[in-house]
Amino acid sequence: MQRREFLKGAAYTGGVAAVTAASARRVYGANSRVNVALIGCGSRGVSVAESIQAVDGVEYVAVCDVYQTHALKAKKQLGETAIVQPDFRRVLEMKEVDAVHIATPDHWHAIPTVMALAAGKHVYVEKPHGHNIREGRAMVKAAEENPQLVFLTGTQHRSAPHIAEAAEMVRTGQIRDIHYVQVWNYYNLMPAGIGTLPDTDPPLGADWEFFLGPAPWVPFNENRFVGTYRHFTDYAGGWITDFGVHRFDSVHQIMGADAPMTINSSGGRFAMEGMSEHPDVLQVTYEYPNFIMSYETLNTNGFGSMGRLTPGITHHSAGAKENRPNGMAFFGSNATMIVDRRAIEIIPEPLPTRRGPGIITPKSTRPNLDRIAKDAEEPSALHAQHFVRCVRGVEKPRCDAVVGHQGSNVAHLGNISYRVGRKLHWDADRELICDDPEATALLGRKARAPWDMITT
């Protein structure tokens, strides 16, 4: 069978799906053994896999990567009995695999996800959902066609108790009148960014053709490979799809929202050198039905929009004791709530007693909020272990295919607005950009054969 025939037909209607359909019918109990395969063996994949495997009764029985060095390292860390397999399709044929954990580069999120669900495997997949919105929609469709299978997006904020607490405070009106939200990701890459490297032959054990997959063919370049692939539009969307998606999903959770109505981006490459194709400054304004969200990426400074308000509080990826490089701020009429992956702060807002020449009295129903500043647990391990409980039928996914897709779309739309240089009007129900053919064309891309199984 030719590879193209395998992808076009067997992935959906037979072949892999027929070989392993029994796993989709398996009934799991609270203590059932769960066999997992890791597809994509970089540092993030192995880190999350270690947390998943820390649950009793879970074992990684296969590790898969197009770079043999990574696969062998993952095998050493996760268990010497794991089978090393460079082709994820062969992993999906393994009857003993119950679930797959997909931690590939972004342009390889959609295809293995769709094929794994067709093969009867539960799926944990890192964000964002695919390289583009159309790939994300294909992932949602595959999940909907296999409702008996678990689909969990790797947006670990959904398993953070302090973020759930923040959402409850907004839902119950403890923090009221939030109509402006600020989100930011800062990281100083000056002056050279990722640098500039010449094209070379791939390293020993690296299948460059397989790595490119659906992306356009280009010669091997180390900067396009391990660790820095996100700087290239062929494989990922830069800082906004990497770090931004987590926070967009959290804004949706806290504000009870699911999609913006308009998107307007500006930015550019002003100072950074090197090969990156993404802006070193990106600012996006999103209009939701009841609030405005402003997003900032800055790669020339690491301080962060707010800076550190409370000494001693832990902030994710902070490079200096004053920095707060990632976060979300919710500005209410009675308090400001600042949330990031490792902390939450609430600063009460004194209500005005004067308005012009008249005197006003604050509402007697004003919530009595104290100044709060507290650390929180990094939620990656909590989310990874939540996946096992979902597979065992103990819990429901906190971030399923639809929720993960909605958070990813926010980032993809920000990039599309930047690329076309104008404001977009988004029809979330139909997943269409209104009256803008150029922008609409960027909702997907024509994948390179034979990996064009997802039509966009």
Description:
The protein is α/β, with parallel strands linked by helices. It has two domains: 3-155 and 383-401, Rossmann fold (3-Layer(aba) Sandwich); 159-193 and 226-377 and 413-437, Dihydrodipicolinate Reductase, domain 2 (2-Layer Sandwich), CATH 3.30.360.10. 30% of the residues lie in helices and 19% in strands. It is built from 13 helices and 18 strands. The chain has helices at residues 3-13, 16-25, 43-53, 68-78, 88-92, 110-118, 133-144, 161-171, 208-212, 239-255, 380-391, 401-420, 437-441, and strands spanning 34-39, 58-64, 83-84, 99-102, 122-125, 151-153, 180-186, 262-268, 281-287, 292-298, 326-331, 335-340, 343-348, 354-355, 358-359, 372-375, 424-427, 432-433. The strands form three sheets. The protein has a ten-stranded mixed β-sheet. Strands 3-2-1-4-5-6 form a six-stranded parallel β-sheet, with helices on both faces. A two-stranded antiparallel sheet has the order 14-15. A hairpin with a 4-residue loop joins strand 17 and strand 18 (432-433). The longest helix has 20 residues, at 401-420. Mean pLDDT is 92; it is low at 1-20.
Name some characteristics of this structure.
18 strands; globular; 2 domains; alpha/beta; single chain; 456 residues
Would you spell out the secondary-structure blueprint of this structure?
Elements: H1 3-13, H2 16-25, E1 34-39, H3 43-53, E2 58-64, H4 68-78, E3 83-84, H5 88-92, E4 99-102, H6 110-118, E5 122-125, H7 133-144, E6 151-153, H8 161-171, E7 180-186, H9 208-212, H10 239-255, E8 262-268, E9 281-287, E10 292-298, E11 326-331, E12 335-340, E13 343-348, E14 354-355, E15 358-359, E16 372-375, H11 380-391, H12 401-420, E17 424-427, E18 432-433, H13 437-441
Parallel strand pairs: 1-2, 1-4, 2-3, 4-5, 5-6, 7-10
Antiparallel strand pairs: 7-11, 8-9, 8-17, 9-10, 11-12, 12-13, 13-16, 14-15, 17-18
Helix pairs in contact: 1-6, 3-11, 6-7, 7-12, 8-10, 10-12
